Amino acid sequence: MQMAHVSKPARSGRGCRALAAACSAILAVSALLAAGAAWALPGETGYDVKAGYLLDFGRFLRVTGAAPADRRATFDICILGDDPLGHLLDDAVANQVIDGRPVRAVRIGDAHAAKGCDIVFLSPDEGDGIPLDLDAIGKADVLTVSDAQDFLKYGGMIQFVEEGGHVRFAVNLDAVNRTHITLSSELLRVASSVIGKPPAEEQP
Amino acid sequence: MKLWDRRTIAGKLMSLNLQVTGTALLLAYLAFLAYDLYTLRNDLISSLTTEAGIVGENSITALVFDDQQAAQSTLSALNHSPDIRWAVIERADGSVFARYPLGGDTATDLKATLTPRQTLAYWAKGTNILLGRRIVFHGRDLGSVYLLAETSELARRARQFGLLSALILVLCSVIAVSATSTIRHLITDPLTELAGTAQVVSREKDYSIRAPLPKSSDELAFLVESFNGMLEQIQERDRALEESRNALEQRVKERTAELTEANQELEAFSYSVAHDLRGPLQHIANIAFLLQNSGDAGLSDEHRMLIEKMATGTEGMAVLIDDLLNLSSATTAPLRRTAIDMSLMAESILERLQADDPARRAQWTVIKGARVIADEGLMHIVLENLLRNAWKYTSKVDVAEIEFGFSEEEAGTVYFVRDNGAGFNPRYADRLFRPFQRLHSQSEFPGTGIGLATALRIVTRHGGKIWADGQVDRGAAFCFTLPYVVEG
User: Fold this and answer.
1) Which chain A residue is nearest to residue B72, measuring alpha carbons?
2) Cα angle, residue B348 at apex, residues B342 and B349 outer, rounded to 5°
3) Do the Cβ atoms of A179 and A166 come closer than 8 Å?
4) FRET label pair with B487: which of A17, B22, B288, B458, CA 20 to 30 Å apart?
5) pTM score
6) B65/A169 CB distance under 8 A
7) B183-204 pLDDT tens trace
8) Cα–Cα distance between B399 and B397 in angstroms, integer?
């Protein structure tokens, strides 16, 4: 359990945004003082949001150049390592369909197995093993997501961050661009921070 | 309405003109304005719907990933739509997610009038339109977007239309006023002249006047021509009437002159006949008198009887001639009116009658004071005739009762001579006053049949009336009036 304080560059530089952040910070501090160290995020409560986000990422990504024959019948959201989401993910994906494919939640123990997934969530418990896991996945068209610290630095694609009491996410576009995955600009718009550049072909 | 009645025709036409134009313009203004406002409002709702759709689409990721700042920046793009006063994006649970303008009033009371579960709903009040639209992502209800637009454009259009209409109305009024002078020149002036002429004609009864013809050749000219034609006809009829009246008067004058002449000749003739008969008659009477008094000059009794009859006949004829001369003078002699007392006159006549026939038992009464202004000689003839008649027709009664008097009636003083004699059949009362008409035989009551005719002429010449009342064997009453009565 960690309090991720990812400093996020102000996107628009608006004073009100800073004010909102300050208000959130004051609220957070006062909440901490009142309830002790047991601050909700990113505990059980945070994971129900993350489970929803994992599903929603699937709606904003596109895999280019993949032959229709290569497409699997199901849209698999895999969890590598200890599962912090539990039934939350199962509930979130129940009866959901992405791109015409029913969504499944799959637990895997081996990073190599992740190559067959569409989205893989790397448990923060993987710890130092995360770079190894990412290496194992390599350039496979799998969206790698984790809330482990420095996940983007290791070459992960999306990292959950906690910001003002809200679950947000940061994106490493360079990591994404190494695969055939394209993330919707709409999704990038709401990311708390984006590292790297958009793919060359999207820059006319 | 009285004010309207007093207006001139030109005024009425002008105000009618203005009323029609004004009404048409007002109706057109209202219709166009209503149509324009309706389409404008529909356009506004349509564009609001589109904008709400765009805002909703662009807010999906912000709502999914709970990025209020992104939603806020989407809403801030609305500042390019001047009509939109404020906008709100709500989460599915109804809490505010983002608003525009930032920190502005959310006007939740307005929003409450919308049904949030509808995909698209709008509500309009006054110049405001509130529109709500749900944001749905893969069947998931993410929230709603609400836009409030102020339709200031509508009011502006209404003002512009009103201004334009007022301008046109003013123009129309100017045209109507200028048209009125034309109407006055073409219609009202000729009508006024015609009315003036008609008034002069009716006041002065001068049918030789003519109304001036208008320059135009329309119905007005026809009216004036007809009016003039009517005047001409009246004038002609008047002339014809005057001529025939003159001719009639001339003829009456001629006839009267002829009649007068003939009458005079007739009177002269009868007078001369009566007068000239007297001489020979007197001669015969004298001879009869001589024969009667010649002693016994060889005359038989039969001769004496014949001579007696001759003497009686000449006497009767003398009376007849006197009566005829009286009748003649009653007609021709000039009236010399003086104040006379008919009571005294009647008394002397009755005394003389009694003296001539002392054997008669008669009771006579004369009411005193019958004073009138009339011709003494002629009135004497009237009273003589009436009293002599009374004396004659009471001859077969045991005691004759004769009365002269007068009574005040409604029509004036009525004088009468009443007796208790033979009377007459009232059916033939009107015959009494005709000459030579007698109701009794000569053997019964001798007479000439001229006396009452003479009385009628004299009373009529005095301007009075005469009539008779009576029954057979119950006496008779002869009444007459005279216009000039001496009072007291």
Assistant:
1) A17
2) 85
3) no
4) B458
5) 0.48
6) yes
7) 777 777 888 888 888 999 889 8
8) 6
